[in-house]
Design goal:
By secondary structure, this protein is mainly alpha-helical. The longest helix has 17 residues. The protein is elongated.
């Protein structure tokens, strides 16, 4: 699955809409991204788990396209819980480094969906640090030979899982 490279601002001009769209594009099981209908239904159906929030597909669509930008804290908490991110990420309360950290964790989870990437990571567990460093160097050399960036993709770039 391709990782979309747009950062939290998206094309809507609304920071919340951009962050939601980033999560929709990246935080989903293998296969197709979640739909507004699916997320609204899951949150509304899991009333206790999501604090009794009832969310409609239409309202979620308005949040994602920037037509609504000030949902209740309960709605933000429910969405944050659904996507497993800190509520401060959606509220815009995090510092730039904290926001970058959340997006880095999202990219990590996306990468770990790929069975081959996961196998490489798991096989390195328990190896001495100097061996892990050597593996990192070898991977960087392969990336260079394939004209890929030496570092893994960032929120501003693209990657594949």
């Amino acid at each position: 699955m391709a990782v979309r490279g747009d950062r939290a601002t998206g094309d809507t001009g609304s920071p919340l809409a951009g962050r939601l769209n980033y999560l929709f594009a990246n935080m989903h099981p293998p296969g197709a991204p979640y739909t507004n209908a699916h997320v609204a239904e899951e949150i509304s159906r899991g009333t206790e788990e999501y604090g009794g929030v009832t969310l409609t597909e239409q309202y979620l669509s308005m949040l994602r396209n920037g037509k609504r930008a000030n949902p209740s804290p309960d709605v933000l908490r429910a969405l944050a819980k659904f996507f497993a991110v800190p509520v401060g990420y959606l509220m815009g309360d995090l510092s730039a480094p904290q926001t970058a950290r959340v997006e880095e964790e999202v990219r990590f989870l996306v990468a770990m969906r790929d069975q081959r990437v996961r196998a490489i990571a798991l096989r390195s567990v328990g190896l001495p640090p100097e061996v892990q460093d050597s593996l990192t160097t070898i991977i960087s050399q392969f990336r260079q030979q394939m004209n890929l960036p030496s570092d893994p993709p960032t929120a501003g770039g693209e990657g594949h899982s």
